[in-house]
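Ticket #475: bound-state structure for adenosine-5'-diphosphate.
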Amino acid sequence: MTTFNELGLSDSVIRAIAEMGFEEATPIQENTIPLVMTGRDIIGQAQTGTGKTAAFGIPLVEKTDFQAPNINGLVVAPTRELAVQVAEEINKIGHFKGIRALPIYGGQDINRQIRALKNRPQIIVGTPGRLMDHMRRRTIRLQQVEMVILDEADEMLNMGFIEDIKTILEEIPKESQILLFSATMPKQIEDLARVFLKNPELVRIQAKEMTVPNTEQSFIEIHEKQKFDVLCRLLDMQSPELAIVFGRTKRRVDELYEALNKRGYAAEGIHGDLTQARRDSVLRRFKEGVIEILVATDVAARGLDISGVTHVYNYDLPQDPESYVHRIGRTGRAGKSGLAISFVTPREIGHLKQIERITKRKMVRMPVPTINEAMEGQQRLAVETLMQAVNKGDAGLYKGLAEELLEQTDSVTLLAAALKLLTKEPDTTPVKLTEEPEFKPKKPRFDKRKPGGPRPKQTGYKGSKPQGKRSKKFA
Ligand code: ADP
Ligand code: MG
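RESOLUTION: The complex was predicted; output attached.
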């Protein structure tokens, strides 16, 4: 791993990155930043969540003149949410250097944008349609642009923006540096790169082998309010030897393990706020089996190596696929198979699909377990306990007592009563849990334009002619 100090960045940028809490560069950052600093055009291909924004944002800020009277850098992004997000990140990176990035997107009052443009931001982050609008009105001039970034190029292609992008690229000075980022490389993007990029270097970060083959993965679609009862039913049905329940926040972890205790489960919680001593003791008791259920946040669980975990329950879906993989990696270790069950609210189904896409594994939909199923699970357990005692054959001392009882009551009634006592019946002790807000996708993709739909024909725009084919080949 490379720290940002090793990448030859300026002090103001290093400070900003430290303030953002980044410690090490991600692989795409480590590989692209030095290349971009030397002036190369880049094609960066890496999955979502790998840190592409800073991979271009850092060198963009480094190379932007804070005194530039005109637009120096241009980022083109598919949606307004992404434009806003990218502009925010660039503003953070450029904070100490005095670099300002302005998001420009459809749906916002254009006059307001025109006023904001008067503050002379050095960098514009725009969606293609609105950028073209400003170009037509001459409220954005790209003649002084030195660096252009196409973010999520494949997504822009899917949304029907490819012709707009070409028009924009034809407007910028021929010698400007172009960086193209995309999770996938469809042919049309390759073609675009061939035409507009100059001898680009391809930086490709292979997706990590992300999934754990021994873990059976399921999900249950339920509402937030049902989650706790359903968790209890699952625990009753499946009687895990050692289970980890993941919650999204510290509060959730605290409330969950206390609620579980109220219903008679041996549970404890760990999260980042606990002292090291406390965490160690909880973990030790979990490994010894004194605690059967560990409730944890992602942070607390990172790097834990606990063998023998049979079940992972995602009470809340994790924010990103990477955490999902970490979580389910807690189970099914050392050749043992494990079971991972995720609770998904109806609105989180899209997020689940994204996790499936990235881990390249399907989760099997599981019906909401019924109280009867939970009951049967516990009865089965009671029978097992009883039969183990029978097989052990050391109940000789109790035989006299049994014979006496059988004189008063028939054997079936007697055995049924014994089984009832052995069975942990579904507990409905009321518990109070604070609702967590549902997972909010980081980058919701709603733009006014329908994905893949035809772009309205642009009229009246007189862009300059292509300034010669920019380039030839991938390096
Ligand atoms: P991508 O564009 O590849 O999908 P993002 O740039 O949106 O990824 O980054 C994903 C998340 O990772 C963001 O929350 C970002 O703040 C964080 N991140 C990026 N780089 C780093 C880093 N070097 N260290 C820690 N977190 C990082
Ligand atoms: Mg991105």
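RESOLUTION NOTES: The chain has a mean pLDDT of 86.
TICKET STATUS: resolved
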